[in-house]
Amino acid sequence: MLRICYILNLVLVIFANTNIYSQQKPVYILDMVHNNPGEELTHSRFNDPNYLKQCGYTGIVFNDFIFPSAAITFKSLNPDIFPLGSKEAKWVESAAACIKSNILKAHRAGIKAYYFMDMIVLPKKLVDLYHTEICDAEGKISLERPKTVEIHRILLDELFETFPDLDGLVIRTGETYTQNVPYHTGNNPITQGVTSHIHLLQLLRAEVCVKRNKKIFYRTWSFGGMHDDTDYYLKVSSQLEPHPNLIFSIKHTKGDFQRTNDFNPTLTLGKHQQIVEVQCQREYEGKGAYPNYIMKGIIDGFEEYSHNKPQPHFTCLKDIKGNENIAGILSWSRGGGWAGPYISNEFWCKLNAWVLSNWASNTGQTETQVFNRFMDENGIKGKNKKIFRAIALYSSRAVITGHASLKLLFDSNMVYWMRDEFLSGIDSAAEAGSKFPSEGFLYAYFQKLDSQHLLDTAVSEKYESVAIWRKIAGLAQKLNMSGKADLDFIRVSSTYGLLLHEIIAEGWHIMEMGFKGDKTGKYDYEALHFSIKRYDIYWKLYQNLTLDHAVCPSLYKPYAFVFQGPSYHLGKGMDYSVNKYRHIVQAYRTNTTGKHSN
After folding, report:
1. How much is the pLDDT for 224?
2. Are the C-beta atoms of 406 and 480 separated by less than 8 Å?
3. Measured between alpha carbons, how far is 544 from 476 in angstroms, rounded to an integer?
């Protein structure tokens, strides 16, 4: 009997210790407001660590593109880099004060403070002084040069000496934005592919994770395969010994945050901790200007994964939630991309972020259970719950059919026809000299669909999206909730979504008819005429929405995106294409009637 009691007590102790260990295992529920580089900082409740704490977040990632590496003077390397009393030194001092204030606010709220940091970003004067020692033959700052590594050790020393309470860094490679750091320059450190990633990670692991017991969240978002190529990812990660302070941060998509991309196959692979990045203000899908609830798809799997986009392995967070490598999530509550649309009410972003953070805090819950709690906390009661749930679920289908398709095979490039606040057209080429233009993608897609006799199907799906948006707008008018400001925004943003997608459907119809006419030399002039009239009416109603409702988000623009600020567009785009056929119709009607006709 005594032996049985001893064994029972031993089992209980082991069980208790196991529970204690599992409770102490780090779970990262992080949020980041991704400010637009070079623009005024985003006004958001998600900048408030106290609000994040209420939402269940355990940490905040500050990302104003004023990196902590830009808020140090390199005094131990060379005091002439930022001379005492100079305007450059004063800028650094001001930036450091802001970072210290942000760290303090986070800790007072009871959450961790991390900072987003591009690699490589160094003072312009430093690069001038040490150019021959740190730059390669192409003039790029190279981590393959010993002096560059030495400088980055000094950088990390002074960074954590200046900000000793900072809990860690979120590291990005691939893209380097210096719009907000006027005295600095930089470039992508990944100049030698896999080897560069390994060298950088070894440096960060030794200097930050081991030496200082701070966290490194190494974002796999880069160029060259680290983010979405399983072999590439494993070639890098397998060369590093795991460490509790080293975590890979990976977008849930195989590529950028687009519904047309697969679930990321690198998630769960290897032997390192990973957190999953999810964008809540979708840069390719309205940026919160209209209803776009994505968390049902993120948690349980998007419907296209069971239609025209079957997945070979995992499809959603629920599929990987029990994997030992998955240590949490990083939501982008706000931001991503460039320019607008700009919103003054972040209700739709809040819905996505709140459901994600609350589900991540207890993955034993269903998405529906968390969604229901959101409604309770936001004053949506009784029959209004059914109405609001329908709006949310309808929005997911309306967005995928309005932007891409649920019927046709996805094209990874066509998605760029609609991004940020821009709508491109079907001109075959962008303006000369434009950088990363979106004009041309839709023309290639139209060519492909036309060759397969599927162009009519693509256009009809845009009208199907409009039909769904009409349901959403109608339901929004029936909805009631306690928060009047949010209710007004739900109604206005639902109408916004309807009018925008009416413009899109009519624009696609015009471009389809014009595209076919260009091929045959024969146009359906009357059909084009009436479609163009409807297109103009929808634009007028859409523009009037901003005049009638102060809460209305800024509007989309009928131009193709180009990576050239501050406007991020030139002359081509949807209007450019529509006007081409407008002029063809006007010329025909003038010739047949003997007078100009609109």
Report:
1. 86
2. no
3. 19
Nearest to 171 by CA among 120, 239, 231, 232: 120
Nearest to 317 by CA among 351, 350, 276: 276
Percent helix, strand, coil in the chain, to 5, is 50, 10, 40
Q: What is the Cα–Cα distance from 578 to 531, expressed in whole angstroms?
A: 10
User: In this structure, are residues 595 and 589 in contact, taking their beta carbons and an 8 Å threshold?
Assistant: no
The gap between the terminal CA atoms of the chain, to the nearest Å, is: 99
Give the integer Cα–Cα distance in Å for 30 and 277.
9
How does the average pLDDT of the chain come out, rounded?
93
Q: Among residues 291, 256, 518, which one has the least CA distance to residue 391?
A: 291
Cα angle, residue 335 at apex, residues 329 and 340 outer, rounded to 5°: 155
pTM comes to 0.92
What confidence score (pLDDT) does residue 593 get? 74
CA 518 from chain centre, in angstroms, equals: 37
Sign of the Cα torsion 79, 134, 209, 279 reads positive
Where helices occur in 163-228 by DSSP H, the ranges are 194-204
Q: DSSP code of 210?
A: I
Nearest to 410 by CA among 278, 307, 257: 307
Task: Check pLDDT > 50 for residue 501.
Answer: yes
Strand (E) or helix (H) holding 118 = strand 112-118
Q: Which pLDDT value is given to residue 596?
A: 54
Other residues' Cβ atoms within 10 Å of the Cβ of residue 491: 18
Predicted confidence (pLDDT) per residue in 381-410, tens digit: 999 999 999 999 999 999 999 999 999 988
Distance CA 351, CA 499 (A): 22
For 405-457, the pLDDT digits (tens) are 999 988 888 889 999 999 999 999 999 889 999 999 999 999 999 999 999 99
How far is residue 398's CA from residue 311's CA, in Å, rounded to a whole number? 21
CA-nearest of 497, 236, 207 to 348 is: 497
Percentage of the chain exceeding pLDDT 90: 90
Q: What is the pLDDT averaged over residues 119-142? A: 96
Q: Which residues of 536-564 are buried (b: 16+ CB within 10 A; e: fewer)?
A: eebbeebeebeeebebbbebbbbbbbbeb
Contacts of 421 (CB under 8 A, 6+ apart): 287, 339, 340, 341, 554, 555, 556, 557
Backbone torsion region of residue 29, taken as left when φ is above 0, otherwise alpha when ψ lies between -120 and 50, otherwise beta: beta
Given this model, what pLDDT does residue 594 score? 64
Q: Angle at Cα 246 formed by Cα 240 and Cα 251, nearest 5°?
A: 100
Both tokens assigned to 215:
């966290």
Strand blocks (E) in 188-319: 215-219, 246-251, 273-279
Q: How far apart are CA 168 and CA 246, in angstroms?
A: 10
d(CA 36, CA 39): 6
- Strand-pair category, 121-123 with 422-423: unpaired
